[in-house]
Amino acid sequence: MSQITDIIHCNSVKLFRHKSCFPSRKQIAFKKTKFDAAQFPSQVSLKLVNRSLEREDAACDNKNFIAFPHVQTLSNFPKEELFRKVVMVRFNSVILQENNENQSEAANAFSTIKYLYEAGAKVIMVGSWSENNNFTLPSGAYPSTESVADFLSSMLELRVVPVKFVIGYMHSKMEDSKNSDIFLIENLFHFKGEVANCSKFAKKLASGVDIIVNDAFSETHKVLASTVGIARFCYAYIAGFHFEDELYKMKNIVNSRERPYIAIIGGGKLVDKANALRFLVSTCDGLVFVGSMAFQIMHALGIPVPLKWVELGALKEAASIVESAKSRNIPIVIPKDIWCTKDHDSEHMEILSVDSTLEGWQPVDIGPRSLQEMISILSKCKKIMWIGSLKFSSSRHDKFGTFKLVEALRPLSQSSCNLTFVGNVEFNALFQKSSNVNLVKNAAVVWELLKGRKLPGLMALDRAYPFRVDWDVVYGDPARPLVVDVGSGNGLFLFGMARRRKDMNFLGLEMNAKLVDRCLENIDQFSIQNVYFITTNATSTFKSIVSSYPGELVLVSVQVILQCIFVIETL
């Protein structure tokens, strides 16, 4: 390859191919100018240049980054970019069960739709909901696509038009309708391609769509075509207002700065949740068991438990959790007494000590001694999370035991205690009007998160740079045209161009933090005011960084480890 730039025309886009200043890394010159390497006192070694580019953003290298990447949200997406765009909203079917649109979950979900509509976007709604006999809309209507569209119309006070998921028909219907219409695609529950995350199905679903807004946080633990596969086929994939609010609640659960922090654990299936419980043992100041998992802990502690209450294969996991708690010197609280019913007489109830013979009885709820001990411990907490069912058995609706424990926590929510309830409809009834309590409906998502697993629906969203770039500080004149070099490496290309073109600003995006630090040291040493470098993975954060620049983006160069490099000119 000659040192003079070769220009390859590809339709209306110009691709520039340039000679490298190092044999192992290709660099890019600007237009038809020859490239002369800039000289600096501290030379960047070839070893640093060749170091792996798999490093994540240095600002996000804490232990929670995998679970909570910085994603692009509707609240920070430029509103003007929504105008006349076709925007598809993957909504949460839970809103179809709400009787009161002022409830926070439904209100956030509906505000996403209204915001997009008022921004001038053509809105398409898509969702998946059950159509069995056990589910009806608040009006009592069967949840067909037509009746769901009517329900959404009444809640949004906008006309929602149902359309069939047939590409040609769907688009012709949209073109024939008035500009003020919102469209609802038929129920994805009926399409196998949705659950299978079929790429062809996802591509058809995204046909003609510019931007996709995911507001179905309760589906983030699933791999669906409408939440994961669709991300490949749109200009932007961002989180809606409801999604963002639920994500904030998830972060609040993992964040353990407030102490003491106690987790109350209900429900069963300890084996399935062992990894999550180990995480809670490692972060909390104690665990309180109020569900059937308490019997697995008792079994591990050597307390006699009827065989029918013991979960198969749970002993090893329960013993591991107990040992982890002992190593951290934190308490594991289990019931001392239990409300029980006779096996063959559900109306006869007694309070039994866990040390007594429990054969022939069924556990229902925690007893009064257990209740007082738990209240005493929890009253000193600054943070409490309750995840799982209220009591051992849901066959009775007596308001004692754990119900009284929930009521005892109510005053704490009015003080400085951070209180979160996860995954129980009874919690919603008790605290739905309280602004001081976090209510998270989908326990499955939280359990997956606590197990340390990535949430596919969250990971598929576009990334956002986690910090605001103050362009007035970065550049002497932030109104100048901007040139961005993705994978800027040692920065020699940008430093050379910054020296030649004082009328432009230059920005390098590089994953290797050591290379970026070296470049920033040179900027500081030589007081250069038209070049800057950021440590980031530009594959995911490019849009969020560059969109805030006040001037015009005129050129983007992309460095890749190949024999030639291409530059896309945006002029």
TrEMBL record:
**Molecular-function annotations in GO:** ATP binding; phosphoglycerate kinase activity; tRNA (guanine(46)-N7)-methyltransferase activity
* UniProt-listed Pfam families: Methyltransf_4, PGK
Keywords noted in UniProt = ATP-binding, Kinase, Magnesium, Methyltransferase, Nucleotide-binding, S-adenosyl-L-methionine, Transferase, tRNA processing
Catalytic reaction list: guanosine(46) in tRNA + S-adenosyl-L-methionine = N(7)-methylguanosine(46) in tRNA + S-adenosyl-L-homocysteine; (2R)-3-phosphoglycerate + ATP = (2R)-3-phospho-glyceroyl phosphate + ADP
Tell me its EC number(s), please: 2.7.2.3
Tell me what this protein is called.
Answer: Phosphoglycerate kinase
Q: Where are the transmembrane segments?
A: none
Quote the PROSITE patterns the UniProt record gives: SAM_MT_TRMB (PS51625)
Family named by the database record: Belongs to the phosphoglycerate kinase family.
The organism is Penstemon smallii
Q: Does the keyword Hydrolase apply?
A: no
Q: How does it assemble?
A: Monomer.
Q: Which cofactor does it need?
A: Mg(2+)
Class of the enzyme per the UniProt entry, highest EC level: transferase
